[in-house]
Amino acid sequence: MAERGDSTLADILAASTPPPAILLVYGNEPEKVDAATGALATRLRELDASIERFQRADFSEIAANPSRIFDLFASSGLFGDSESLIVENAAEKHSDLLGDFFEQVSAENSNARLIIASHDLKRKSSALAKARANNFCRVVSAYETAIDNTALENLAAKEGLPHLSADVLARLRDYSAESGPVLTTFLIQKLALATSTGAAATVGELESLLPESGGGNPDELAPLLFNGSGWKLLDALEGHRSKGEADARFVSNLARLCADVRRVQPGYAAGRARPLFWKTDKVVKTAAQRLDRLPDRLESALTEIHKVETAMRQSDPLASELVERLCLRLARYFTASRRN
């Protein structure tokens, strides 16, 4: 469990206002810390349009050049711009440096953003204690995975869903306990798109969006998508249609695939094995070696997918054509010649 007073990932994801300028994410499992860090960066970009992308650094680099984080909040750029930075792998051996930083840093006159991630710091670490005492820092626990009813309702309200029924809340709680807050947030976003405007979401709609509910296999799409094969994606779409399955299911599988791969990217960069859709692991490792800035490409792909899902939800008369065009656009995001 989180230390009393610490935030959970769900707290930040459900909030409608930006958190403080510094977030320190800690836990004992690298996978959960990586996932929480990526989700926080995405949420901060949603809440603050001035954040274009986060730079990344390992804490060993910071230890060799501490001025990088000490100077981060010292001044703003000439045009009000500022750096957004994620520092990974903070450890107990860095406690003195972290402690000095939190005792001295003030973000009062800066627009900079900093996320520090650690799967080594312990709950009672002196560095965490000093972080909790800093008015410009929020300590976020990656230990807890289940989301309570209030946070689920806040997440749903943020996506435009009306009050959730007790049955839907219970199913979402079960899913969050199994899958964690990152994938639960993604599921709620999909539920909002699948639910008619002004209507109450049903358990049936929720079940239809779960990975285990059938309607195609994202694994089958991974080689086509991450090799930038637009025409093969179109062939897969036609095969999907020939079985009588809705375009929305095909697009949902693309979204699930991109979101899951984006979620685990920090772990791949650190050389850790990550759980992906079955058979997808080798394809993604190859794509990461072949493509520069893969997380940015995934972010752009998810933005395009979200636009098409919104059009489908609004019964756009060109929805079928938009899905076909989406296949070609997504292929361009994952071709080696593209530079984002």
Can you describe what's shown?
With 340 residues, the protein is α/β, with parallel strands linked by helices. The protein is 55% helix and 8% strand. It is built from 15 helices and 6 strands. The chain has a 6-stranded parallel β-sheet, with helices on both faces. The longest helix is centred in the middle third of the chain and has 29 residues. The chain is globular. The protein starts with 6 loop residues before the first strand and ends in a 7-residue tail after the last helix.
Question: Which secondary structure elements does this structure contain, and how are they paired or packed?
Answer:
Blueprint lengths: L6 E2 H6 L7 E5 L3 H18 L7 E4 H6 L2 H4 L13 E5 L6 H10 L8 E6 L7 H8 L3 E5 L7 H10 L7 H29 L8 H6 L9 H9 L3 H13 L4 H23 L10 H11 L3 H20 L5 H15 L7
Helix pairs in contact: 2-12, 5-6, 7-8, 8-12, 10-12, 10-13, 11-15, 12-14, 14-15
What does this entry show, briefly?
The chain contains 15 helices and 6 strands. The protein has 340 residues and is an alpha/beta fold. It has a 6-stranded parallel sheet, with helices on both faces.
